[in-house]
DNA sequence: CAGAGGATCGGCT
DNA sequence: GCCGATCCTCTGG
């Protein structure tokens, strides 16, 4: 398992969203323990996308979307959940990739201390808000550089590359027709309606 | 297991 | 004030 650097990943939004499927997200907690999950579902929010938080320009919430790529963008939604994104595109261009679902690989017990003792493996990281709950990710991690931070980073292992499916995105009211959702076909850890993950 | 409906509050108009 | 890149609970099959 090798930690990724900025130079290892595509800077373009949809290219990164596809590239990210199969990579590992590692969260290191204050006590030194770690939790690890494999990315099985992402959504691209490219420049000019009406559904993107960056569409109406820079604000205090979305400023990290306009910063350097390969950084975290974390926001709070629906009064209850945080969502983790990874920024893309050169500085000055607002874009990011939402991490929608992970397959839990390591640190499941510590995830359950935050998500609940009864939660099944399948539901531990299935959904963007659940990921942030299990990994203790909130606005304190907004803007951190994934290349150099010691709390959050990306890694690659030797697992066989998944077949990647493509579909429309989940939970939107704008630009609902754009097919910018990427997922590992056949994974049992995906979010959203089952039908969305069948074809493509 | 799948689908529907309500809760909840920060961000932005 | 309004609305959301969601989650949880409950219901029915």
Could you provide a short overview of the structure?
Helices cover 14% and strands 28% of the residues. It is built from four helices and nine strands, in the order βαβββββαααβββ. The chain is globular and about 40 Å long.
Descriptive account of the structure:
Helix 2 packs across helix 4 (128-135). It is built from four helices and nine strands; from the N terminus they run E-H-E-E-E-E-E-H-H-H-E-E-E. By secondary structure, the chain is of the alpha+beta class. It is globular and about 40 Å long. Strands 1, 2, 3, 4, 5, 6, 7, 8 and 9 form a nine-stranded antiparallel beta sheet that branches. The two termini are 29 Å apart. It has helices at residues 13-19, 108-115, 121-124, 128-135, and strands spanning 2-3, 24-28, 34-45, 72-77, 81-87, 96-106, 152-156, 164-167, 181-184. The chain binds a DNA duplex (13 and 13 nucleotides) through residues 43, 45, 51-53, 56, 59-61, 75-81, 83, 85, 98, 100, 127-130, 133, 169-173, 191, 193-194.
């Amino acid at each position: 398992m090798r930690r990724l650097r900025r130079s290892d990943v595509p800077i373009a939004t949809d290219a990164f969203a596809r590239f990210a499927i199969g990579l590992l997200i590692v969260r290191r907690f204050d006590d030194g323990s770690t939790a690890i999950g494999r990315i099985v579902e992402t959504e691209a929010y490219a420049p000019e996308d009406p559904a993107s938080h960056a569409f109406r320009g820079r604000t205090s919430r979305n400023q990290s979307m306009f910063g350097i790529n390969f950084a975290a963008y974390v926001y709070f939604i629906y009064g209850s959940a945080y969502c983790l994104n990874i920024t893309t595109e050169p500085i000055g261009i607002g874009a990011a990739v939402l991490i929608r679902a992970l397959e839990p690989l390591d640190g499941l017990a510590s995830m359950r201390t935050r998500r609940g003792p009864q939660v099944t493996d399948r539901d531990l990281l299935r959904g963007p808000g659940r990921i942030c709950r299990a990994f203790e990710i909130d606005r304190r991690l907004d803007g951190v550089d994934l290349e150099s931070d010691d709390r959050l980073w990306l890694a690659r292992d030797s697992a066989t590359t998944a077949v990647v499916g493509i579909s429309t995105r989940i939970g939107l009211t704008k630009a609902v027709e754009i097919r910018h959702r990427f997922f590992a076909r056949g994974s049992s850890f995906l979010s959203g309606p089952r039908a969305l993950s069948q074809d493509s």
